[in-house]
Design a protein that fits this description.
Radius of gyration: 21 Å
Number of helices: 19
Shape: globular
Bound molecules: phenylalanine
Structural class: mainly alpha
Order of helices and strands: HHHHHHHHHHHHHHHHHHH
Strand content: under 5%
């Protein structure tokens, strides 16, 4: 508790920005566009937005509330609230999920570092569609490049965590998140001026209902959990840092709005450009990394725009890796019963993640190059496992925990001052956690796996 209090956030805006910083990241700018491109464009967007509505609010509020009530990380929070050890498996499952997620997240952050470096050297200037595709493949097959590029963000994240939560995360988020939004809006404007951009907009916004399959729904739900950082207890840690008088409902709403806005803006940059330059929307994980350089070359002050954009993307990724690693660090402190301090546990977390990065990079490029499990490499396997299975499952467990086992007072959701006009909130919140969220997740799972035919 001592540790938590010491590293708590200083202002309400700080919490919103830090939670939004955790939510907004590569999930919005890298994953969302390529998932949309692979899963039918507008149809995916529609299902995604519905998932955000059904799952986003209750789950984000749940995690923040658990954290704030217990004032701790997952490990003690479940025990503290339920009064027994029966939920500890969920804390361990979350820790496992966070570790795998962190490992593959740093690989993609490494791609950003690589493109930032290349933007600074003007490497991709003048490259056409084919060259950009070949260039990406060359980049991700180079072991030393990938290793260096993914270790750099690990070290940056550790350095920020070393100095504590409020001084690091809060200060950074306050300046950079608004900058990212402005830069993205400028890019949308430029892209919409390209010939043929209308086709891309239609692809992104006009749903073709025949594309909505059980698999697409499952992907969209997974993307929703991933993008909002819910389902692995990450926001429990942030909730623990949140001032008691802060309005959980309003904060969650603002975070979700910002997160969705950034994802939609990313789609509005990528898809018009995909069609204008002749890329394939179903290009997969490399989509954004081949399309963005093409877009950035078209901007005025192309070199500067490239450097600024990749720098902001890198920082958006960092605010997410900070939250992931903060979760690991806080858990180590708590599991050691205070024997390890913040600095020790930052060092341990850094060492573990560096080892994981080496394993992931080698399995992708080097010694274990062709290693495949169930037809996927380690990177793809982790991504699918985390997004499609572990996060939805964690979300299911978390909603049942709060819905059925956590006593909730009216003022947990809304501060006393606003209580009167928001009395309807609690019954809806509890009902959706008890019934709607769990049933929807179970149905999506069974339907997506083909066990049930809806
Ligand atoms: N939500 C982050 C993103 O969109 C990823 C993330 C997931 C971060 C879970 C923390 C916890 O990039």
């Amino acid at each position: 508790m001592e540790q938590t209090k010491k590293s708590g956030f200083n202002s309400k805006l700080g919490v919103i920005l830090a939670a939004a910083g955790s939510a907004i990241g590569l999930g919005n700018i890298w994953k969302f566009p390529y998932e949309t491109g692979e899963n039918g464009g507008g149809a995916f967007l529609l299902v995604y937005l519905i998932c955000v509505l059904i799952f986003g609010m209750p789950l984000l509020m749940t995690e923040i509330l658990i954290g704030r009530k217990a004032g701790k990380t997952t490990f003690s929070a479940f025990r503290e609230i339920s009064g027994n050890n029966r939920w500890q498996w969920l804390a361990w499952l979350s820790a496992f999920t966070v570790l795998i997620l962190t490992a593959f997240y740093f690989i993609v952050t490494g791609w950003c570092v690589n493109y930032l470096y290349e933007a600074a050297l003007n490497t991709y200037a003048g490259m056409g569609t084919e060259d950009l595709l070949a260039h990406f493949t060359a980049n991700v097959s180079s072991t030393p490049k990938l290793l260096i590029c993914s270790i750099i963000p690990v070290l940056c994240t550790s350095a920020i965590l070393w100095f504590g939560v409020s001084s690091g995360i809060e200060r950074l988020s306050k300046i950079l998140m608004p900058m990212l939004l402005v830069m993205m809006i400028l890019m949308v404007i430029r892209v919409l001026m390209l010939d043929g951009s209308g086709v891309g907009l239609r692809f992104f916004f006009a749903p073709d209902f025949s594309q909505i399959t059980p698999a697409v729904v499952m992907e969209a739900a997974g993307q929703c959990f991933f993008s909002l950082s819910v389902g692995l207890g990450m926001m429990i840690t942030y909730g623990a840092y949140m001032p008691a008088e802060q309005d959980v409902t309003a904060t969650s709403f603002q975070v979700i709005l910002l997160d969705t806005l950034v994802a939609v803006l990313a789609g509005m940059i990528i898809f018009p450009a995909v069609f204008a330059f002749g890329f394939d929307p179903a290009e997969g994980p490399q989509l954004v990394f081949v399309v963005l350089p093409a877009v950035l070359q078209q901007m005025s002050f192309a070199w500067l725009s490239g450097v600024v954009f990749f720098l902001l993307l890198f920082i958006a990724a960092l605010t997410s890796t900070i939250s992931l690693m903060e979760g690991i660090v806080a858990s180590i402190i708590e599991l050691s019963h205070g024997k390890l301090n913040r600095h020790h546990s930052v060092l341990i977390a850094t060492a573990v993640i560096c080892v994981l990065e080496v394993v992931y990079v080698l399995s992708l490029t080097g010694v274990w190059g062709g290693l495949q499990l169930f037809g996927h490499n380690l990177f793809e396997l982790s991504e699918t496992l985390v997004t499609t299975f572990l996060m939805p499952f964690g979300a299911l467990a978390m909603s049942l925990f709060t819905g059925w086992f956590m006593p909730l007072q009216e003022h947990d959701l809304v501060p006393h001052s606003k209580k009167r006009y928001k009395q309807w909130l609690r019954p809806i919140f509890v009902f959706s956690l008890r019934w709607i969220v769990p049933l929807a997740i179970v149905l999506i799972f069974l339907n997506g796996l083909g066990v049930l035919k809806l």
